[in-house]
Design a protein that fits this description.
Layout (H helix, E strand, L loop, with lengths): L4 H17 L3 H12 L4 H8 L5 H41 L17 H14 L4 E2 L5 E2 L1 H4 L10 H5 L15 E2 L5 H9 L4 E10 L10 E11 L4 H16 L6 E8 L2 E14 L2 E4 L4 E11 L1 H6 L8 E8 H9 L12 H7 L9 H6 L1
Parallel strand pairs: 1-4
Antiparallel strand pairs: 2-3, 4-5, 5-10, 6-7, 7-8, 7-9, 9-10
Helix pairs in contact: 1-4, 2-4, 5-11
Bound molecules: 3,4-dihydroxyphenylalanine.
Length: about 350
């Protein structure tokens, strides 16, 4: 038996009412099932259409389908609006709380090599030295010849040079074996007087406990009209005292040989070795710290300067060695392992240049 028109209207009204009172998506789904589901009230009516005489089936079917559509549309509209409400509620709840403190990142640290270069720049800067730079890929002339190290000189073999493949003319570039070629380039590019340091990477084909194939040096050059060994001694003594923060450190200049200086010396500083510990200061032991000397007249001539008019001193030192001595770092190889634990332990906070200026004022 099909529903009379007025019963159908009542069913439609009842369904619309149920849709309106459903305040959650679950409740709305329950309404859909109750009316349009497999055994829903309207579905049941549709199922019975088959039992009607054909002439009634058509009109009853059309009427039922229209009600079904109305209910389906009401449910779809209600669903959309409930979904919007749910979304707004979720957005409201998930809102980023910008008043929460940020999770802190662990800041990086300054590598001891950079720190020591910074310190030396500051310290020599206070003595009027600027900073010069030069290329790490050098040619034979700047790295050796201009520094008075001729072709056949044993010093060339001693440097264990890394060479690049030769070009068409048979010339090979090389990785600079020391920072001394920066002396040549800076003097060629400018006019005397010169007073600068040149920190940077250097390379030698050598790798063991005390040698790394890449290491760092700081070169120094002071050229003027009346520079003599007294200036060299005064300047470098001031340097070690300030750098190590020991005012009474004894120094010793031991005769040595470098082709680009004459006379040449190795500078030693006093130290005390006790129970595996090394302390810089007055004691019976000596520690070699750098090479230095009065710039050789041949080097000055090679850059077009008259050695009768200009003279001065030069020095060169290993940055790793300075860092190991000052900061008690026992093993050279650890410098370039990039081990975060090592960096956290031996690294420095940015701009932490301890006591240098105070040291100089003493
Ligand atoms: N270039 C030398 C080296 O690597 C170090 C050196 C010694 C530099 C004496 C100088 C100097 O400027 O005067 O072994």
């Amino acid at each position: 038996m099909s529903l009379a028109d007025k019963d159908l209207a009542a069913l439609s009204a009842e369904a619309s009412g149920a849709v309106r009172t459903a305040t959650t998506l679950d409740a709305l789904e329950a309404v859909r099932i109750a009316y349009l589901g497999k055994s829903g009230k309207l579905t049941e009516q549709l199922k019975q259409l088959g039992s009607l005489p054909p002439e009634e089936r058509k009109t009853a079917g059309a009427a039922l389908n229209q009600v079904k559509q109305v209910i389906a549309e009401a449910i779809a509209a209600a669903k959309e609006s409930l979904e919007n409400i749910a979304l707004s509620a979720a957005l409201e709840q998930d809102r980023v709380d910008i008043t929460l403190p940020a999770r802190s990142e662990k800041p990086g640290s300054i590598h001891p090599i950079s720190q020591v270069i910074e310190e030396c720049t500051e310290l020599f800067g206070a003595m009027g030295f600027t900073v010069a730079e030069g290329p790490e890929i050098e040619d034979d002339w700047h790295n050796f010849t201009a520094l008075n190290i001729p072709e056949s000189h044993p010093a060339r073999q001693m440097h264990d040079t890394f060479y690049f493949p030769a070009d068409a003319e048979g010339n090979s570039k090389l990785l600079r074996t020391h920072t001394s070629p920066v002396q040549i380039r800076t003097m060629q590019a400018g006019k005397p007087p010169f007073r600068f340091i040149a920190p940077g990477r250097t390379y030698r084909c050598d790798s063991d406990i005390t040698h790394s194939p890449m290491f760092h040096q700081i070169e120094g050059l002071y050229i003027d009209k009346n520079i003599h060994m007294g200036h060299l001694k005064g300047c470098l003594t001031q340097f070690v005292q300030t750098f190590f923060g020991v005012s009474e450190v004894p120094v010793r200049f031991r005769p040595s040989f470098f082709p680009f200086t004459e006379p040449s010396a190795e500078m030693d500083i006093g130290c005390i070795r006790e129970g595996g510990e090394l302390k810089i200061g007055a004691g019976k032991d000596w520690l070699e710290i750098l090479g230095c000397g009065m710039v050789h007249p041949a080097v000055l001539r090679n850059v077009g300067l008259d050695p009768e008019e200009w003279q001065g001193f030069a020095f060169g030192m290993g940055v790793e060695r300075l860092a190991m001595l000052k900061y008690g770092i026992p093993d050279l190889r650890t410098f370039f392992d990039s081990d975060v634990r090592w960096l956290n332990h031996y690294g420095f906070a940015p701009l932490d240049i301890p006591t240098l200026v105070r040291g100089l004022a003493r």
